[in-house]
Amino acid sequence: MGHGDDHPHDGLTADLKALAAQSSRRKVLGWLAGATLLPLLGCEDANGGACAAIPEETAGPYPGDGTNGANALVLDGIVRSDIRSSIAGLSGTAEGIPLTVTLTVVDSGDACAALAGYVVYLWHCDRDGQYSMYTRQDQNYLRGVLETAEDGTVTFTTIFPGCYDGRMPHMHFEVYEDLASATSGRNAIATSQLAFPTAVCDAVYATTGYEASVTNFARTSFERDNVFSDGVEQQLAEVAGTVSDGYSATLTIGV
């Protein structure tokens, strides 16, 4: 549900206000990119150095960061790479096609320099389109926090998310300057979303367990999505793999 993002049933409506507030800034970025004929994907500008900052997006109604009720950031065990299972006294493991997500946090104003010691909080829905701690209150899986390594990377092990009505498949993430500040979404220095190539989504949703996603995915597109419709290039992950072996997704995040 992104810009109005994460409501499996009323995400489009919930996101309109957030989209309106951000659309002007992002349109300007789009015009600049078109004028200079530079791809936003890599993050390099005409001066051969500076990276484009990741577009700011809504955290949606199910952030689990303390800004809308539940706060996964204060749970014991939330700092972890494998986010497929619930923690802190809850049991349950999200089923689905395996996916590793590697995010690289870089300085958008300093030649794409890797940012070590920063923190990424990643969360997303399960293959049924439900969010733990909210629409699945008996679980807190598919949420996790990691500190970036010297090369600015974090790698999460998770499952490919489902597609719920009104949104393209996506993941949410927030970036913090350090672990000490990663206790509330109010301290995040960047909040955005990650998208997936449509061909990969088609392949995953043809497998057992993702049946509900097939119809939902057929009804939407990047052009119709209320978060990605103004440009998805900077947020579109590079994905490799197969449904039998699992997938890996990578994305660079300029902050």
TrEMBL record:
> Which residue range or ranges hold the Intradiol ring-cleavage dioxygenases domain?
92-168
Q: Name one GO molecular function term.
A: ferric iron binding
A Pfam family annotated for this UniProt entry: Dioxygenase_C
User: What is the recorded name of this protein?
Assistant: Intradiol ring-cleavage dioxygenases domain-containing protein
